[in-house]
Batch of 2 targets.
Target 1
Amino acid sequence: MSVERDRLAEDFLSFALLAPRALSHSHLLKELDKRIAGWGITHVAACVMMDHERRFKVGPMFGKPNMAWADVYFGEKLYLDDPVIDYAMRADKAEYWDEAFDSSRIGKPARRVLSMAGDVGARDGFLVPVPLYNGDIMVVSYQGERLERHPDVAGVLRGLAVYFGTEGQRLLIKSKLRSGRFAGLNTRQMQVLHLAALGRRNKDIASELDLSVKTVEYHLANIHQQIGARNTKEAIAIIHSAPETLSDPD
């Protein structure tokens, strides 16, 4: 490994070690920015999700998404012809853009999307499809003029993408629990419902919050009554039906 690649891997690995101890989501992003600035990565984005019915939708963004490009990308629905996204929706592993598909076999609309991406400075990228607990797929992409190609770097990027996929979903759910029919829940009830919405089982929630399983069940029963849900599954469905606005709660 070259000295440059070694330093790049160390930068990302140090960030990966920092992630679990980060004070907030915004703090974590600042630390990420420090590490990617000098390594050819212009921005990081997680902005396309697809539900179980294979419909595209805008998801949480983080890092430095190019908003001008995002407006065009979503406004013109370029994701419908994007070969990178098409790969992500079928893939079970992370990959560099140019290794994800055969560029000589893609159609004119797909080539147009790649050309437009290059025009805004995204000429190389590392793509990670992140399956979420509810069946959605979050596409996390590290983009720039060039990306260092080394197994250690790829491994760290993959790990960061999975972290941000989980973190993005956590923030999304937390923001929804602050409004509407959930506004009347107390702090403990919100904690319990939040973890349930993240796919935790009652015994896992009990362990994480240092409660008994019966206490978790008690909180869930009260939540159901307060928000008008017949059970926890319906309560989670109500969360997902709420408007998708993401803000940093920290």
Target 2
Amino acid sequence: MESGQGTVLLVEDDLSIRRGLKTTLTALGFDIGEASTGEEALTRLRMVDYDAVLMDLNMPGMGGVEACRRVRKEFPHLSILVVTVRDNEEDKIGALDAGADDYVTKPFQVRELAARIRAAVRRRRTPASVSAEPTLSVGIFELSAERRMLKKRGQEIKLTPTEFDLLAYLMMHAGHPILHSKLLSTVWGAEYGDEREYLRTFILQLRRKLEDDPSNPAYLKTVNYLGYLFFDPSEDA
């Protein structure tokens, strides 16, 4: 199932909000499906091949975070965007930890939301080619581009598609600082080029998964005022 702007499953328990968003996004060229709960969303996803899911975190039943986790487990390559009214780091990290690729905080501009959905559809249809190497090995980490798998000391670490692309690009340029704007435009698209706080949230999430001590990172280093680099401590040994 493929339409011009993309096919999107809208998961929102508030009927008036759901209808309003559907009308607006349909007018912008998206093909919109609807679900009012996480349970209904899973049923719809098993029936229709969507490009992306736009999901409100604040839902009854299993809740948005648990729904996101189940969608990611059953549909590992699907783009998942979450919408939340809570603008704090913990909630964003919680959504990303559950498998979300992106988040939008209420209140949002329709233009911003549409741009995020288009980027999600593009990533689903044409995944970012951030690594030309079939396997990248940096220190204790091994990343397989073909299997889209990361291992640390031989143990697999689960990553979302977006986390994988971000880490792959950093590992491909290990030891070299990568500008904020370069990371954003390469992994998410040109429309994300100035969103440094957005990138910071994803880096924090990767550190939680990769680092022995996320508060004192040994591998994912911040380069003040510039960006980030992937560092192999063994090279200094």
